[in-house]
Amino acid sequence: MQDKTILRNLIFPIVSYSGIGLALCERLLTHSDQIHLCLACRNMQRAEAARIALHTSHPGADISLLKVDVGSLQSVLEACKEIKHRYKKVDYLYLNAGIMPNPQISLKAFVNGLFSRKVISMFATGEGLLTQQDRVTADGLQEVFVTNVFGHFIMIRELEPLLCQPGNTSQLIWTSSSNARSSAFRLDDYQHTQGVEPYSSSKYASDLLSVALNRHCNKQGLYSSVTCPGLVMTNLTYGILPSFFWTLIMPIMWLIRIFTNTFTLTAYNGAEALFWLFNQKPESLDPRAKYHSYTSGLGNGYTKPQKMDLDEDTAETFYEKLLELEGRVRDKHKSQEDRR
């Protein structure tokens, strides 16, 4: 077990090997050498590549790796067991993992929107433009829901002893999206089994969950915040359209950025709000705000909060439904373990 006395902050991002997660790590390590950074990834080869890249620019950085697939309950439980063995406290838990499987785009809606006054909104939110094909995992859950929401929730629940400690504060920092829309979410189908926008539903669900967690956990010193990276060109974004298409429209997008602040475009700028929250006192933050990464026309990044349009009663009901689901899933998992 690592000696907590040598650690100023234990950072535990859920990151991929590239994109906003890696950009955030670079910014954190540039900002302070008094942190321990644990990269949690499902692909350890890529995680090691990320660690090598970070050590190249920050040779003295304290970086460890942990294997976890938040889409698998077994993987999450095993990872949390390892975390509790290694560490005495978690100061920051960045909930950055997310998938958008098999994205489909309406080319007609895209072309019409490209030459309309709604072009900025279309790119920023994907509303009316994107659908996805979800699937059921081995745990019997919808893949997008469990990866983007429920796996994180189980991790938070498992790590409560490390996150909620007397006299200390800890932060949960979610990566949400401008694509999070109430119209895609239903309490009676919160896994989005009957719709075609599981990504949008899952991001709205994480917004609801963050509000509920603040309601339940602030008194224990645990605070939750939601961020939006803006429109960032990551592997997830490039997967929506053929690469040649992005090559054609990128000059247009850079031009549009002069007139809108939501086109962050680079991973560095997309991580702005994630990094900004690291430097804030969590008690001073608005529990119902979404902290947006914005970029000026000159390319300078900044963070701005916007009140989320959601209902606290809906957030509470969703939280209770997650607790019920957690109980059923844990019982099923225990039953399977007993039979082995």
Automatic annotation (TrEMBL):
Its main location: endoplasmic reticulum. It comes from the Eukaryota. Pathway: Steroid biosynthesis; estrogen biosynthesis; Steroid biosynthesis; zymosterol biosynthesis; zymosterol from lanosterol: step 5/6. It catalyses: 4alpha-methyl-5alpha-cholest-8-en-3-one + NADPH + H(+) = 4alpha-methyl-5alpha-cholest-8-en-3beta-ol + NADP(+); 5alpha-cholest-8-en-3-one + NADPH + H(+) = 5alpha-cholest-8-en-3beta-ol + NADP(+); 4alpha-methyl-5alpha-cholest-7-en-3beta-ol + NADP(+) = 4alpha-methyl-5alpha-cholest-7-en-3-one + NADPH + H(+); zymosterone + NADPH + H(+) = zymosterol + NADP(+). Keywords: Endoplasmic reticulum, Glycoprotein, Lipid biosynthesis, Lipid metabolism, Membrane, NAD, NADP, Oxidoreductase, Steroid biosynthesis, Transmembrane, Transmembrane helix. The keyword NAD applies. It is found in: Endoplasmic reticulum membrane. It is a single-pass membrane protein. It holds the Pfam family adh_short. GO terms for molecular function: 3-beta-hydroxysteroid 3-dehydrogenase (NADP+) activity; 5-alpha-androstane-3-beta,17-beta-diol dehydrogenase (NADP+) activity; estradiol 17-beta-dehydrogenase [NAD(P)+] activity. The keyword Transmembrane helix applies. GO terms for cellular component: endoplasmic reticulum membrane. InterPro entries: 3KSR/17beta-HSD, NAD(P)-bd_dom_sf, SDR_fam. PANTHER family: 3-KETO-STEROID REDUCTASE (PTHR44442), 3-KETO-STEROID REDUCTASE_17-BETA-HYDROXYSTEROID DEHYDROGENASE 7 (PTHR44442:SF1). Belongs to the short-chain dehydrogenases/reductases (SDR) family. ERG27 subfamily. Binds to the short form of prolactin receptor. This is 3-keto-steroid reductase/17-beta-hydroxysteroid dehydrogenase 7. The gene is Hsd17b7.
